[in-house]
Amino acid sequence: MAAPSTDNTCREEADTTTMERSIRERVPPLLTDLYQFTMAYSYWRAGRHQEPAVFELFFRDNPFGGGFSLFAGLHDCQLFLRSFRFTHEDVEFLRSVLPPATDPAFFEFLRGLDCSGVTLRSVPEGTVVFARVPLMEVAGPLAVVQLLETSLLCLVNYASLVCSNAARFRLAAGPRRKLLELGLRRAQGPDGGLTASRYTHIGGFDLTSNVQAGFLFGIPATGTMAHSFVTSFTSLEEVWPRTLVAVDGDADPVDVISLTKGWLSRVCELLGATPGKIREGELAAFLSYAIAYPHNFLTVIDSYNVGCSGLLNFCAVALTLCELGYKPVGVRLDSGDLCALSVDVRRVFRLCSEHFSIPAFNALIIIGSNNISEESMAELNSKENEIDAVGVGTHLVTCTKQPSLGCVYKLVEVQGRPRMKISEDPEKSTVPGRKAVYRLIDADGHPFLDLLCLAVESPPEAGVALSCYPVVHNSDAVSITPAQVVCLRQEVFATGEVTQPLCSAAETRAKVQSSLQTLHPRHKRLQEPDTYSVAVSEKLHNLVTELCKGSSSDSNFLLAN
Amino acid sequence: MAAPSTDNTCREEADTTTMERSIRERVPPLLTDLYQFTMAYSYWRAGRHQEPAVFELFFRDNPFGGGFSLFAGLHDCQLFLRSFRFTHEDVEFLRSVLPPATDPAFFEFLRGLDCSGVTLRSVPEGTVVFARVPLMEVAGPLAVVQLLETSLLCLVNYASLVCSNAARFRLAAGPRRKLLELGLRRAQGPDGGLTASRYTHIGGFDLTSNVQAGFLFGIPATGTMAHSFVTSFTSLEEVWPRTLVAVDGDADPVDVISLTKGWLSRVCELLGATPGKIREGELAAFLSYAIAYPHNFLTVIDSYNVGCSGLLNFCAVALTLCELGYKPVGVRLDSGDLCALSVDVRRVFRLCSEHFSIPAFNALIIIGSNNISEESMAELNSKENEIDAVGVGTHLVTCTKQPSLGCVYKLVEVQGRPRMKISEDPEKSTVPGRKAVYRLIDADGHPFLDLLCLAVESPPEAGVALSCYPVVHNSDAVSITPAQVVCLRQEVFATGEVTQPLCSAAETRAKVQSSLQTLHPRHKRLQEPDTYSVAVSEKLHNLVTELCKGSSSDSNFLLAN
After folding, report:
1. Residue B557, in any domain of the structure
2. Residue A415 — pLDDT band, cuts 50, 70, 90?
3. Where is the Nicotinate phosphoribosyltransferase N-terminal domain positioned along the sequence (chains A, B) (predicted)?
4. Which of A118, A140, B293, B340 has the fewest CB atoms inside 10 Å of its own CB, making it the most exposed?
5. Does B537 touch chain A (CB under 8 A)?
6. pLDDT tens, B50-67?
7. Distance, in angstroms, between B512 CA and closest chain A CA?
8. Interface of A with B in 30-59 (CB under 8 A)
């Protein structure tokens, strides 16, 4: 792959302390909505702040018009919970913004807060998930779990969105083409870029241009040169040193300028090209780069004109390197009709390989990188091209098709009693009660339905028929028989500690691939996928009905007056 | 405005040290593309790293199909430049990712790097700007100014985009309606949320929900309660304390439960409402909040049903507060037909005011906040409604209409000689040479053309006709006479220091308003605006022509062989 990294093996991630510091810096506990504090104060004032409460996090629609999403951001949430504490400075700031009526003792309470009373149950990071399935359950003291809302949403929303987007690009590209994430400069803020690098790698990208993502997450970083490097040179006079030592020859430096000029003549002759249209500055840039990094020679060849200049200059320098025993890496195309250009370039590589008997020219790679969208990625499968690797920036990291996932965080239980928001907009009503979530698998090993039950119900059993209600509005009961049943969530944080090992980016990336593997292709289609079923158990269905009618004791209408 | 902040006066920003630390944490010098380092190494290896070079930053199209953009992110760029330094840990990481061929002395060079040799000339932050006008000029040692590319782009791109988006929402809303930014949970990463809060305030929003934005930038923060607060209550038994002291009455606490029940009866009677449909938990939530923050009573009233429950409960508690001498603030509507609901709510407020002789009910505010887009904001001007303030999240902060601005950073000069990228895609060609940028103003005080000249040219003069070439491809020369000429850029960073005072968010916000004020309405139209003219001087036009032909000595074709 593109120099300097030559494979996509992950390096070690930074140690957990560095990661945790990074989270504390990116997500300080004040990075939240003010109303979390006014609500927490009201709970505290009413003596309700310690009441056990349960929130659920979910999204309402699969992103990008697709049939699935990937769940991501959990690792950051776990570190966030572990480090959640207000500093003296934080509390003093809150004292200055909350209404003067706030009892000073509340600030003492905040000063002592942490997440030791919070339990997080979650779908494993990197799992394929669906709209309306509660992905995380956050249980703990009412005031604390309320305070966590905005931060957890912020950490899950974009991570899951951009990871899902990357997975779609990967599906569009097919399994073999290398995918490079190049989005940092176009990301929504510096951390948008960093988060994108992590979660697009998890979603299926191989390499990133982002050095900090390499540093923090061990993602292999890649990149060689921009057009500015090429255009900064004007003349071969600027090349220095002007010599290179052959890989396994004697130690006498070889004059590469002369050597390259010779190769350029032969290339021009072979291709019938006009030397008069070749840019000298471009040749100087390529030579300078080759002299600096002879093992990593990969250049952008469209700063002027690919056919008349860039490709000829590349071939001349690459042939020089080959003569000295080095293996040039390849080229990047960054404008024009990438497919057509790549075919031309490959033809020239093959011709050179054959004519000059240089087999290394058959291993050269071609990278394409010009405003690639999911659609243009998919087109690579239908149009003739020779592109080995694709660099994607804007459309990947900013998720132009749908730049927000819309996760929400809803209260479902207080003091062991189910809570529900019954909106005039049915889409905005919530499913009450503490739940267990099961993924039902069919006889072919494909998941076919996610079932939400009350936590107190006994789990569905493999091979046993059960009746349930699809969450689609006003659906009738259906009967289904799973071949296997998987409990979808597990406890990942409790008593102030992370209770499942934190997954590295590489581990979660592997999880994504295996989770996507089991999903039936009809749900993975990028256009018009089949809808995956999500249903509630009969007991949960009955509870919803009761609460909507107000007939449950936990949904009192004010009858006494 | 929405409690607890009662106006939109900015607080003090955090001190510069805190801001600079925040930038260092958000934008460490490794948060960049790897190729910046491979290029820097090649320059260093060739002995070219100290050559004086000039880059320009600009975007190619005004965002959102609009006629203008706002320039933002400069403040962060200035702090970034001032603090730009590699730590030992950074350099050791780079040593591990750059190709093994990298000369160890290069890492010593990196260790000693800073921006003391860099000069930044920039359009002032908050200025109305247009596509293809170079907004920043970064001059300094070639290797250093190359290394800055990704970070500067990342800091300007999203800041300018989201600031421009906010300005469009402000234009759509008109000058009087209060605008609240509520986007943190839907932002692209935590810092996307923080950046959005700063730059949407600068672009014209009044308040934010984001506490950290209040802490760092002094932006007034707002917010009272979510639906979860309302649904967490089930019964009036949960209200505690159950008393409140009147504002200027005697100190005897009053039983507000009884008082509220009395008011609720009277409200139901007045409105002919059915008490049996009123949610007791909602009333308990409102009462608890009122007891905690009697001066800041603003509730969300659609957790169940506005007309049958939320509005009645609000009125009862608000009337109780009025009786005790407090001034309730208002309500928030978060679902359904906001316009129609607001009209109903206002009617009830007026009725209560009149019937119970409570003038404070005429001052109650109504906030709307349900997936507001630029279009739905504009609709508020044509549909009957009583919405005083609008809360906007997703569409504002993620810029759903166009989630990336696409700023680029192009080399225009090395060693005093102009550089140019001549792409096969004319859109991707650059305008060479170090420039001066002038804004030409017409006799009515409206800017009508931005003129790019070579830095060495004498500036255009007011009242003197000049000939220039619009940047639209292949345009003929036009003759124009400005009434006034403004030099658009100024030096803001040099010799390692910020040379213009850093502007606070409040100052830049004022600049935005005055800059937008002078722009002719035809360029401000949200749909199909007139295109603002950008042109190059004759001298610059001639230089482009020369370089394209390769006839300039700085654009050598390889003639010798």
Report:
1. no
2. very high
3. 30-157
4. B340
5. no
6. 999 999 999 999 999 999
7. 21
8. 30-39, 41-43, 45-48, 53, 55
- Single-letter amino acid code for the residue at B293: Y
CATH assignment of the domain containing B55: 3.20.140.10
> Is residue B287 located within the same domain as residue B414?
no
Do B264 and B237 fall within a single domain? yes
Q: Which among B35, B189, B196 is the nearest to A223, CB-wise?
A: B35
| A225 and A317 assigned to the same domain | yes
Taking 80 as the threshold, does the pLDDT of residue B8 lie above it?
no
Does any CB of chain A come closer than 8 Å to the CB of residue B449? no
Please indicate whether residue B248 or residue B157 has the higher confidence score (pLDDT). B157
Q: Is residue B444 part of a domain?
A: yes
- Cβ distance of B232 and A190 shorter than 8 Å: no
Interface check A234 vs B, CB under 8 A? yes
Cross-chain Cβ contact A209/B419 below 8 Å: no
Q: How many domains does chain B have?
A: 2
What residue numbers bound the domain in which B203 lies? 167-397
- A417/A344 same-domain check: no
Last residue of a domain, one of A372, A397, A422: A397
State the CATH number of the domain containing residue A247. 3.20.20.70
Residue reference for tokens 């073999």 = A176
Q: Each residue of A10-25: pLDDT tens digit?
A: 567 888 888 888 888 8
Residue B553 confidence (pLDDT): 53
Q: How many CA atoms lie within 13 A of A172 on its CB side?
A: 24
Greatest Cα pair distance in chain A: 101
Q: Are residues B307 and B258 in the same domain?
A: yes
| pLDDT at site B25 | 86
Confidence (pLDDT) at B113 = 97
Cα B393 to Cα A241, B1, B178, B388: the distances in Å are 56, 18, 14, 17
Q: What pLDDT score does B3 carry?
A: 44
Q: Provide ipTM, 2 decimals.
A: 0.95
**Which among A276, A281, A403 has CB closest to B400?**
A403
Assign B340 a pLDDT band (cuts: 50, 70, 90): very high
Q: Is A381 on the interface with B (CB under 8 A)?
A: no
Say if B498 falls within a structural domain: yes
DSSP line for B127-159: -EE-TT---EEEEEEHHHHHHTHHHHHHHHHHH
Pairing between β-strand B330-333 and β-strand B365-368 as defined by DSSP bridges: parallel
Q: Buried b / exposed e across B414-446, counting CB within 10 Å, b at 16+?
A: beeebbbbbbbeeebbbbbbbbbbbbbbeeeee
Confidence of residue A552 (pLDDT cuts 50, 70, 90): low
Nearest to B150 among A185, A189, A296 (CB): A185
Judged by a CB distance cut-off of 8 A, whether residue B302 touches chain A is yes
Distance from CA of B235 to the nearest CA of A (A): 7
How many Å apart are CA B290 and CA A395, to the nearest integer? 47
> Which amino acid appears at position B556 of this protein?
N
Are B122 and B266 contained in the same domain? no
CA atoms of A188 and B191, how far apart (whole Å): 8
Question: Is A322's Cβ below 8 Å from some Cβ in B?
Answer: no
Last residue of a domain, one of A397, A423, A444: A397
Shared domain for B379 and B412, answered yes or no, is no
Domain membership flag for residue B90: yes
Please tell me whether residues B333 and B446 are part of one structural domain.
Answer: no
